Amino acid sequence: AQSVAQPEDQVNVAEGNPLTVKCTYSVSGNPYLFWYVQYPNRGLQFLLKYITGDNLVKGSYGFEAEFNKSQTSFHLKKPSALVSDSALYFCAVRVANQAGTALIFGKGTTLSVSS
Amino acid sequence: GAVVSQHPSRVICKSGTSVKIECRSLDFQATTMFWYRQFPKKSLMLMATSNEGSKATYEQGVEKDKFLINHASLTLSTLTVTSAHPEDSSFYICSARDARGSSTDTQYFGPGTRLTVL
To answer: Which of A94, A111, B94, B115 is deepest in the core (most CB within 10 A)?
Structure first.
C-alpha cells in the first residue's frame, strides 16, 4: 500500500538550533514528495517539493528537504530554527487514484521552537 | 500568486440544515480541486476530487449524497453539506491544483472553513 509516515508527533527545538522533521514514504515508481505547513485554524501552505533532479530541495522560509531514495525518506530541515516556525508540518506524496492523482498526507508533526 | 480562498471561514448551523462552502482560485485556473476534512490534531482526509465540468470522484466511505460537490468553472468549486448533523462538525479545507506549466502536482490550499453543527 502506498503511504507516508511521520514517525514523530512532536519535535521540540531551541531557537537558533537546527531542526529536522522526519518523513518516510512507500510508493510504487518515482515519488513526488511535498512538505506543507499549517498554522492554527489555517489552511496548508506549500513549502517545497521534490519531483526529480537534485536530492536537496530548497523551499520557503529557509526550509530544505533531502530526498534519499535508498532510505525512502524526505526529511525536512532548517539550519537555524525560529520561534515563528512553530506549527504543524505535513509530508505528502502523490499517488494515483481513480480520479487521476492525489496527495496523501502523513499524520503531521508539531514543531515547537522555544526561545 | 497561487491564492485560494474559502468562504465562509466559520459557520454555525442547526442540525438538519444545509451549508454551502465555496472554494475559489483567485489568480490561476484550476481544472482540479480537492476537498479535505481535518479532525482535531489529525491529518487531512481526502473526501473527493473535483474536476471542472464533470462529476466529482468521492473517496471510499464518503457519502456523495450528503457532501455535494460542484465545480462549475475553472476557478470555483462548492461543497454543500446536506442535512448536517453534529458529527459533520469539522474543519473543511479545499485545495486547487495549478493547471499551468509543469507544476501540475502542487496543490494550493484554502484557509479552511470551520463548520459547527448544533
So the answer is: B94
Phi, psi of A110 (to 5 degrees): -85, 120
The pLDDT value given to residue B103: 52
Cis amide leading into B40 (omega within 30)? no
Measured between CB atoms, which of A32, A94, A105 is closest to B43?
A: A105
**Contact of A93 with A2, CB cutoff 8 Å:** yes
CA B30 to CA B71: how far, in whole Å? 10
**CB proximity under 8 Å: B 49-68 to A:** 49, 51, 57, 59
Contact at 8 Å (CB) between B49 and B34?
Answer: yes
> What is the DSSP pairing of strand B10-13 with strand B113-117?
parallel
Is it the case that residue A30 has pLDDT exceeding 90?
no
Beta strand A10-14 with A109-114 is parallel
Q: What is the pLDDT of residues B100-112, one digit of tens each?
A: 654 557 888 999 9
- Give the alpha-carbon dihedral of B115, B78, A89, B60, to 10 degrees: 90
B chain contacts of residue A90, beta-carbon cutoff 8 Å: 43-44
Q: What is the DSSP string of B80-116?
A: EE-S--GGG-EEEEEEEE--STT-TT-EEE---EEEE
Torsional sign, CA A66, A67, A70, A73: positive
